[in-house]
Amino acid sequence: MRNKSQDSGIAEMEELPVPHNIKISNITCDSFKISWDMDSKSKERITHYFIDLNKKENKNSNKFKHKDVPTKLVAKAVPLPMTVRGHWFLSPRTEYTVAVQTASKQVDGDYMVSEWSEIIEFCTADYSKVHLTQLLEKAEVIAGRMLKFSVFYRNQHKEYFDYIREQHGSVLQPSVKDNSGSHGSPISGKLEGIFFSCNTEFNTGKPPQDSPYGRYRFEIMAEKLFNPNTNLYFGDFYCMYTAYHYVILVLAPIGSPGDEFCKQRLPQLNLQDNNFLTCTEEDGVMVYHHAQDVILEVIYTDPVDLSLGTVAEITGHQLMSLSTANAKKDPSCKTCNISVGR
What we know:
By secondary structure, the protein is mainly beta. The chain has helices at 4-7, 129-142, 158-167, 222-225, 257-265; strands at 10-12, 20-25, 31-37, 48-55, 73-76, 82-85, 95-105, 111-113, 120-123, 146-149, 151-156, 171-172, 175-176, 192-196, 216-221, 230-238, 246-253, 268-269, 277-282, 285-291, 295-300, 304-305, 309-313. Strands 1, 4, 5, 7, 8 and 9 form a 6-stranded mixed β-sheet that branches.
């Protein structure tokens, strides 16, 4: 009578060494290297590794397995560390658990297997500059023609500006960016800055009178934030299950902490020649253009004094449906997703 292990094509044999002291290294947003220690006893019998990987948030998927349950990856035994890439659709900035067992394939096709190792946790990395450059190239395709603009603006409620005046000496303070946009964006939850808009209505050349963020608007002349003393970086490209697409750009004064953060993580753009936001000099005057067919979200990484601009009430409506606060990116959109993860 065959036991359950034999029925599944997997047989048990305790002599195979159990992996221990598992190490995860060289973690990217879509790959990692894994290695472990093994007792030398019966080591030469190992022909395969069984690797079980699960997203950590799936509470029920990573219990210790019965030996007759097939694992998610059967890999030929190779010298360690072993690179895991392309075996799963790994998502960036995601916590995973992993366990390993060793196996010996028999002539009849059955496997002899070790006990499962301990379960190890790790988190995949953010998008690298390489991945962000792929996003950048996708965004360039739909950015559209460039329109002139002259001011950056920030909409909020009256209470917000009262608070800034009373508690911060009328100086806007950078805050940590929320988790809106691409899940793998290296600026989410890490970069500190102040969000500004610059999009204009094509028929008036002025900012729209409606806003999802509040009826009071701080306006500041573009040259106060965007000039040859600032660096410009591409931060993200996303949509929220709508026809609108958003591009996040970062303006960082040269040498500032924000500039140093972005220099290591984000593709830098030429101030005068890019598809999204440009600053050029014409007859001694600075001229500014923004892309027409994407909604730009501009993060300025230093404090900004309200005295450098004006605060006034807008005449339009507050369109909450257009808010991007903590908005989740549509993972199925072919326009703004890259193949390495969501």
